[in-house]
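The step that takes the researchers longest sounds almost clerical: writing a folded protein down as plain text. Below is the pair of lines this work produces for a single protein:

——
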Amino acid sequence: MLDLKKIAQQNRNELLNRVLPFWLEKSQDTEYGGYFTCLERDGKVFDTDKFIWLQGRQVWIFAMLYNNVERRPEWLECARQGGEFLRKYGHDGNYNWYFSLTREGRPLIAPYNIFSYTFATMAFSQLAKATGNDEYATIAKRTFEKILEKRDNPKGIWTKNVAGTRDLKSFALPMILCNMALESREMISESLLQQTIHECLHEVLDVFYRRDIGLIVENVTSQGELSDSFEGRLINPGHSLEATWFLMDLGVQLNDRSIIDQAVKIALDTAEYGWDREYDGIFYFMDRLGHPQQQLEWDQKLWWVHIESMIAMIKGYHLTGNRKCLEWFDRLHDYTWSHFRDEEYPEWYGYLNRRGEVLLPLKGGKWKGCFHVPRGLYQCWQILEKCEQPANLEL
């Protein structure tokens, strides 16, 4: 029998005593502001470029924890100084957010990536709530509006595809908008919030989720149909599982049990599909028709995939009581903690080979920053503490 209270404390202690102190001490650039994210196993900086989406994610983490866990001054200051760096240097003056900057804040890569915008919105929404600063709230609102303007062509002039030949749309944007709408609800009007939520639910559940195969696909045609191409056959189990707990949160927000039940079904089916029966863990990429894949890293085991899957399963169990969710949480928790957690140094590894051996010993880089590990520990801690209580739903 799982001791859920003990596991809740395990997640709480890891978050507060190991992971957050690591980022507070090792990542903050006290000379120029913002954060270093390219950190070796022990936290030494190995590259000083600053990636906007990771800057925004770290602002969000520390502001969110300040708002929701404890009003620690060091958390607020960490979020505030990162937010100020983003406010000054992260965009072109019209809230078009660059992809990356030099250490000093000079732009390196143009604003081609919509996720620089989404995490800036989330960051300034939480920072506005923490500080009461109206300028931060305005930045969040203006950036949210930019995202909605760009949603049909996220990369704009920087897209590489030739229009009219194979026009595909990606699951990633409606997925993140599901979460961002709730994160930013205090910064936008109720009508816009509801409109965004319902549009995202439609895209995720009626377009990208394919009932005939029981899975979410990463790309569909502009008409919402399957495409027999590398991109069209792509399944990313981690993305799908992360999306399911966003859907569960929306189901709670809308008081709609059917959304929650559908999300739980998708989560269980995806975990079963994506699990590596030879070496354990969840594959990074898969082909829905079983063909060879173009991503050479397809069989790697990534930190965020497993952490997001844990959240989905424990949230599904809490909201529905489905024992299969609890069984999957137990399996995922055991694998994740035994493979990704570094026993010697704080923070977790990000990249394992298929056999579960550490592939890269870094703690942060261009794609891994202060986000999935602390958010996952926070989510699991909070949900596990509620698991012995009935879910607070009027359904």
